[in-house]
Amino acid sequence: MTMSSTKHFIRRGFTLVELMVSLGIFTFMTLLLVTKYGNFNQSVLLTDLAYDVALTIRTAQTYGLSVKNAGTGTNPFQYSYGVDFSPETSGLNNNRVLTFFVDINGNNYYDGGDLVVSTYSIKRGAKILSVCSGSGPGSCTAPSSPAQLDVTFKRPNPDAIICANGVCGSSYAMVTLEGTGGGIRTVVVRDNGQISVGE
């Protein structure tokens, strides 16, 4: 004997409205995450750049104090080491180039006749927004354009010699860096040899 029975199944699932709301929330969260990650990534790159600039200045200080042999002249251990912040010669990127140099002629700033150890260009859309020097944070004024800032170190003192446009004697210098997202970092050098990075 065959029994026929009819069973009714209740189908459960998402309605079209529920599916659209879920998809909208997922899209919004994905966009938010991608946007925040991009800003975070740019912030990290800018902070790394600031520390690279500070490290370059610290390397010049270390070379100056440890009397690294410049390899020129009759007394190659007498020269000071420094970092020069000058505008790019091309002027296309409105940026500056860092030049790590040996001060051969002893004037405490880079004048083209000095020995270049290495040259660094700022890349990935970041730039050196400005450089300034003065007697302290409140009196730090930007030198007239084209502004050249030089920080040199000569043995036996760890003190920094800060020069702006070839004029030395400032006790405070600040290099302001700007990232592609508009973030700002600063590298501060004081005449007592202290180098710090800030926001």
| Helix segment tally | 1
Radius of gyration: 28 Å
| Annotation, overall tally of beta strands | 10
Shape: elongated
Low-confidence stretches: none
**Termini Cα gap:** 88 Å
The biggest beta sheet is recorded as: 6 strands, antiparallel
**Arithmetic mean of pLDDT:** 80
Percent strand equals: 25-35%
The domain tally reads 1
Summarize the structure in short:
This protein has one helix at about 15-65, and strands spanning about 80-85, 95-105, 115-120, 125-135, 150-155, 160-165, 165-170, 170-180, 185-190, 195-199.
List the helices and strands and how they pair.
Layout: H1 16-65, E1 80-87, E2 96-103, E3 115-121, E4 127-134, E5 149-153, E6 160-164, E7 167-170, E8 172-178, E9 184-190, E10 195-198
Characterize the structure shown.
The protein has one domain (33-198). The chain is built from one helix and ten strands; from the N terminus they run αββββββββββ. The chain has one helix at 16-65; strands at residues 80-87, 96-103, 115-121, 127-134, 149-153, 160-164, 167-170, 172-178, 184-190, 195-198. It has a six-stranded antiparallel β-sheet with strand order 3-2-1-5-6-7, with helices on one face. A four-stranded antiparallel β-sheet has the order 4-8-9-10, with helices on one face. Strand 5 and strand 6 (160-164) form a beta hairpin. It starts with 15 loop residues before the first helix and ends with a strand. The relative contact order is 0.16.
